[in-house]
Design a protein that fits this description.
The protein is 37% helix and 25% strand. By secondary structure, it is α+β, with helices and mostly antiparallel strands.
Length: 281
């Protein structure tokens, strides 16, 4: 019997729900990416509360809470939502990312452990899974082993989106080469790139001490170049459309009173209940 980590069990159940009821995720992601019409970064923050509510409304064996920025303002943690499996009572902390197709940050390596370890072991190129796997399984690479990142990937021109989950176990099995890259472009610090036994790019570790930009350092991959190391929770790309009524609703809500918000919320709850009944959940 195949065993799953709590996070893998969650993504398996999420994939099953989306497969059976694709309209629910299409509606939710359309609303999330509509927020880019308000601001280029707005959709990321609203995706956190949107996906948390999606779990609460449609995944009955799970509950979710948006952690919020105040708790993690000191950046001691990266997770955005806390999910509880109601059956096993496992707590799953998830970092939700809303990125365009291409580079994807998996961890900021806050404790600055991965980069120094690689610097001490790899002068130029290291080859052989037997040498590299112990590195990936080391305490310094805990962030690699426990990648609880749920990436909402979008292709804005095509108005398509995909939920792509990185598979660290498959990466550990297949990585054969670590290459230290220096110079090139505007690069100031070296980058350690990982490649599999066919020469395909898997991921990379970027410079990450206190001087480095937390938005750039740490463990990265690329949803375009490393596509073989991602599982699509949505079963591939799905089309989304902008919900202009939602933008209008937000603008009106910002100048309305709390009384109006209460009344609007009741109407929205009734609509969600109608969706649930219509989908037979």
């Amino acid at each position: 019997m195949e065993l799953y980590t709590p996070y893998q069990e969650f993504t398996k159940r999420l994939k099953l729900l989306i497969s059976d009821h694709p309209n629910l995720i299409t509606t939710t992601l359309s609303n999330v990416f509509t927020m880019r019409l308000i601001g280029n970064k707005t959709h990321g923050d609203l995706a956190e509360i949107g996906m948390s509510e999606f779990i609460n409304q449609y995944m009955y064996d799970f509950s979710s809470a948006h952690v919020g920025k105040d708790l993690f303002r000191a950046k001691t943690q990266e997770e955005d939502i806390r999910v509880i499996n109601r059956i096993t009572e496992d707590e799953i902390l998830i970092s939700l990312k809303a990125y365009g197709l291409g580079p994807l940050q998996l961890s900021t390596d806050k404790e600055f452990r991965m980069f120094p370890l690689l610097s001490s072991l790899v002068d130029d190129v290291m080859t052989g899974n037997d040498q590299i796997r112990p590195i990936l399984e080391s305490p310094e690479f805990t962030a690699f082993q426990n990648v609880n990142v749920l990436p909402l990937i979008y292709h804005e021109k095509k108005q398509q989106c995909n939920i792509l989950v990185f598979d660290p176990e498959l990466a550990m099995e297949r990585v054969e080469t670590i290459e230290k890259i220096t110079g090139g472009g505007n690069r100031i610090h070296p980058v350690f790139k990982f490649f599999d036994n066919r020469g395909n790019y898997v991921c990379e570790v970027r410079y990450g001490d206190a001087e480095a930009n937390a938005l750039q350092r740490g463990l990265w991959t690329n949803t375009r170049r490393a596509s073989g190391y991602f599982e699509s929770i949505t079963g591939g790309w799905i089309d989304y459309s902008h919900n202009l009524i939602l933008v209008k609703l937000f603008s009106h809500a910002l100048v309305a009173s709390e009384r109006g918000h209460v009344e609007a919320l009741e109407r929205v709850k009734k609509d969600i209940e109608a969706l649930i009944q219509g989908e037979g959940l």
